[in-house]
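Crash report, auto-generated. Payload:
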Amino acid sequence: MTVRTEATDLLKASISKIIDLNDQEWKVVLQYFFPLRLKKREPWFTAGSPCNEVAFLVSGCVRTYLVKDGNERTGQFFFENDWYTDYSTWLGKAPTTFGVEAVENCELLLISFRDLERLYQQLPKFERVGRVMAESALWSLCLQKVTYMRDSAEESYLQLLETRPNVIERVPQHMIASYLGIEPETLSRVRRKISQQPYIANA
Amino acid sequence: MTVRTEATDLLKASISKIIDLNDQEWKVVLQYFFPLRLKKREPWFTAGSPCNEVAFLVSGCVRTYLVKDGNERTGQFFFENDWYTDYSTWLGKAPTTFGVEAVENCELLLISFRDLERLYQQLPKFERVGRVMAESALWSLCLQKVTYMRDSAEESYLQLLETRPNVIERVPQHMIASYLGIEPETLSRVRRKISQQPYIANA
DNA sequence: CGCGACGTTGATTTGCCTCAACGATTGTGG
DNA sequence: CCACAATCGTTGAGGCAAATCAACGTCGCG
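Recovered output after restart:
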């Protein structure tokens, strides 16, 4: 199983923002990663089954979701250069509550929890990567939580439009609705209302 | 400024679950922590001001909250043995969106971000503590998010009753309501409904 | 071409909010 | 230790934003 060079370069760039590694250390790190390709709407894993790897997204888009009363609700979206894992298995506390599937065709690089733990042993400074990853995941959850706590459906959508245009452009509308915690019909009405009352600069 | 021995012992116990330190290393770690006492309803910091420390709760209970349209909405509750910090300042991205205040009289041990960064340099294995703390904060946010995404007001309350009885017993009802994202009146009605239809074992 | 998934629009329902009033409890100063 | 005010929880009535149910046009894909 070979890994595309460009994919590895993206991965290295992402890690290099956090720690510096020499050639020997890079060899150690990179040996553990292996590729996974997903086609649009193909699942990585489903809710209830364990997630045993951390993923780096080289390209494409995935979403986490759970099923309630037969309909899907989206948790988060991830794009190229994002990291994702479901921490429930890692922390050993529970089976996953979210499933993950591809929204677009995807290329991922995975490292198993077992190998990651090994890496932490071999290269203690790699702990820093784990910490920064967890902290930034935490940060994005916090931001989302603020929106949940404070904003109405319309405000949430405007917020998303402003801060994450990627999502609006690349994700089907019904998934955006389920991410915002509203029904597709409601989002459709919100969009109509917004387009009738466009943004007026300096009004 | 002296730190009570029992307080230090709790802190050491919490860290010892993650890494082993020798006497010399403990000296390095402990020198950075300093105590803070809060009286019931006293703020640690308010939304918009920076948070420059990580806190370990020795005793008592604090909550995070934000203000929307003049009324307070609770983000999370923390109890003895919990860790808390607002990551927005740490990550250098924004001023705090949540304020923190004491729900009960509290004793905290704080370490400044500056000293924590210093500690990471001096004792690289302490990165592991930072990682585990971020991971477990992330985990509890995930759990809360699942509730937000999946449960009605009544289900959320029952969930809380089952998984975090601490909150029900030690926190005023209107704060619980604001944590669940509902109004005090609604929580009151939910409680009445539940007490009229008590849990029936194996029914 | 025809089917299924997607987005839109309308009519109706509903869970929760809002506003208002009222006991119960707490805590504070005389 | 009591009187009083303030805070807290409860209950009722009415309103609203979003859900639900239903129908329909459009697009993409096999």
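Post-recovery validation: Residues 32 and 118 of chain B are 10 Å apart (CA to CA).
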